[in-house]
Amino acid sequence: MATLLGESLFKISAQGPAPMKDFFYFEIRRSELSKLLDVLVFQVIWRWWKISLRTDSRNTKPGEVRESHSDYVEDKRLQSQVAMVFGPHVLQYSKDLCQGQYDYLQRLPEPLLLNIMVHLELEDIARFARTCRKFKELCSSEEFWEQTVRLHCDTVTAGMEDLAKEVGWRSVFFTNKLQLQKQISRRKLKSDIASVGLSPTLSGLQVDSVRGHGDWTTEPRNGLK
Asked: Taking CA atoms, which of 26, 79, 152, 178 is between 20 and 30 Å from 185?
């Protein structure tokens, strides 16, 4: 599982809360080689840029603090700054990382995550989507709903694939078979009409069949509004 952890475990940047204009950067790195000690040093990086219109602040250099994971867990002052800029959720998350509580699930490759997700119940998918932004995006992705449709359907026809390009795989999944077939047939009819150069809308007429290039049978549409 350690291979899932990149050099940077977490990073975020933002402007400070109003009326503050300063900009902040926060990163938790897994390791960095110390040239002096020739050992791996775990680090937390906190940077800030002073943003001000005052002339005496124009030459102010950016500030930076680097400390080990263990030092950060004990550094209440830096923790309070993180909470002020990024909120309590980021603070707790950063403390968990520095104490070795890694979120391996979020770091899995997306194809593997999608393969796991398609076997979950819909109720579980709804809960899963609420856990973090990444999972919410995955649960709404076309890749997820396409895999879900292909898993639950015995056959995915070319008509279904063409319809999915228009309405999306999620819509295809939640449409019952009868309505789905009607939509596919309607789409095919429009395609046949376009192939012979006619308008898809025939006011007051219902197309019963298409024979060649122009041999049409039509009848008045009842109840036309």
From this structure: 152
